Amino acid sequence: MTRVLDPQRLSPGLVLAASTAMLVLGVVLGGMLLADVRLPPFQVLDEAWARWITSLRSPFWDGVNAFLNVAGYRGVLALHGVLVAALLLRRRTQMAIFAAAAGIAVLIFTQILKAGILRDRPENTVVLTDTGSFPSGHVASSAAFLVVVALLVGRAWAWVLAGFGVLAMMVSRTYLSAHWLVDTLGGVCLAVPLALLLWLLSQNACIQENRDVGRLLSWRARASRRRRAEAHPGSGP
Predict the structure, then answer these.
(1) What is the pLDDT of residues 109-128, one digit of tens each?
(2) Mean pLDDT score of the chain, rounded to an integer?
(3) Does residue 186 contact residue 134 with C-beta atoms inside 8 Å?
(4) Contact 28/182 with Cβ under 8 angstroms?
(5) Which of 164, 180, 197, 217 is least surrounded, with the fewest CB atoms within 10 Å of its CB?
(6) Which of 234, 38, 230 is nearest to 133 (CA)?
(7) From CA 104, how far away is CA 147, in angstroms rounded?
(8) Does 69 score more than 80 pLDDT?
């Protein structure tokens, strides 16, 4: 895990700027819904997107999105729990705390907003859903998990995969008519800033912890090689 994890320190200014922009957008969208939950200003856009995306339905894409429907919420929550457990087993306590806090915070705030806004879902949904359409819980949970992984891995490819995964989940939720397009955007505007802001508070401790564990493992590996060499002095090249 030492070689896989390589968390990088992010610029506080950039994190605060990006997080603020997304949170403001989310608040604006939520405020519009609170003002008129049945006919917000973007309802025309939502309906136009819904008509187009559902026109693409086919048996193949139905199967793909049925899988994403399960994987994007229960699956992601399970993976998030496995990630936290793996970090604890590998002595990354600070990283585990960060990962758990991000997942739990996103889950709680998503449910609070759903219950507070109570936007109706599209009428032709093809999957079982709970009450409240804004924000999308599938998108929020997936975004939280993928951003957490990208932050801990600390490599460009992880961010690319995270972006692709979030976009795929946004499209999937509208394809299944489980959410309006703006609902999926709301999930992103909630989950990503929360994960980034929590990382801003945790990054120094997480980065130092990863370095310390890496040094300890390297020292143990060198000590183990020395012991093997001493036990078998004639086995070397």
Answers:
(1) 999 999 999 999 998 888 87
(2) 90
(3) yes
(4) no
(5) 164
(6) 38
(7) 14
(8) yes
CA dist 31 and 169 (Å) reads 24
**CA dist 82 → 79, 88, 89, 127, 230 (Å):** 5, 10, 10, 26, 39
What does the DSSP assignment read for 70-97?
HIIIIIHHHHHHHHHHHHHHTT-HHHHH
Q: How far is CA 233 from CA 218, 219, 224, in A?
A: 22, 21, 14
Amino acid at 17: A
* 225 against 8, higher pLDDT: 8
Helix (H) or strand (E) holding 64: helix 59-70
Instruction: Say which residue the tokens 């929360």 belong to.
Output: 194
pLDDT in tens, 178-190: 999 999 999 999 9
CB atoms < 10 A from the CB of 55, how many?
Answer: 7
Q: What is the pTM of this model?
A: 0.88
Sign, CA torsion 100/103/109/115 = negative
| Distance spanning both ends of the chain, measured CA to CA | 30
Q: Could you tell me if 6 and 153 are in contact, meaning their C-beta atoms sit under 8 angstroms apart?
A: yes
For residue 112, give both structure tokens: 């609070």
pLDDT of residue 219: 43
